[in-house]
Amino acid sequence: MSAKWRRCQKCRKVLSADEFDGDSEVCQADLQKTAAAVKTPSRAASVVTTRVVAPPAQSGGMPGLRGRGDMEVRARRARVRALERLAEMHSDDFDHLLREERRAEGL
User: CA-to-CA distance for 64 and 88, rounded, in angstroms?
Assistant: First the structure.
C-alpha cells in the first residue's frame, strides 16, 4: 500500500493519509463518531426492561421443550409421548398389538 493511502482499523476503509491524525490508526470521521456517542448517551440506554420468567413445566418429557418448534414437530412429539404413556399403562395389549404389526410387516 502506498504511503498516501491507509486502512482505518475501525471502519476498514482505505482512505488518504490526510484523513488520519498523525500516526493514528483510526480515521478522523470514526474518532468524531466515537466522541459524539460518548457525549450524548442514547435514550435507550436509560430504559430498563424487566421480564417475567415462568417456571418450566414439570409434567413429563424434557423440561423446557413444550411449546417450542414447528407445529408439526410439536404434534409428533406429543404423539410419541402419548404412545409411550399408553404402552406403559397397557403393556400387555401393547405387546400383543406390536407382535401383530411386526408379523404383518414380515419381521
Answer: 23
Contact status, residue 93 vs residue 101, Cβ threshold 8 Å? no
Q: What are phi and psi of 7, to 5 degrees?
A: -100, 130
Confidence label for 93 from pLDDT (cuts 50, 70 and 90): confident
3-state secondary structure the chain: CCCCEEECCCCCCEEEHHHECCCCCCEHHHHHHHHHHHHCCCHHHHCCCCCCCCCCCCCCCCCCCCCCCCHHHHHHHHHHHHHHHHHHHCHHHHHHHHHHHHHHHCC
Residue 42 or 26, more confident: 26
- Using CA atoms, how far apart are residues 14 and 16, in angstroms rounded to an integer? 7
Give the range among 15-19, 22-26, 47-51, 88-92 with minimum mean pLDDT. 47-51
Contacts of 93 (CB under 8 A, 6+ apart): none
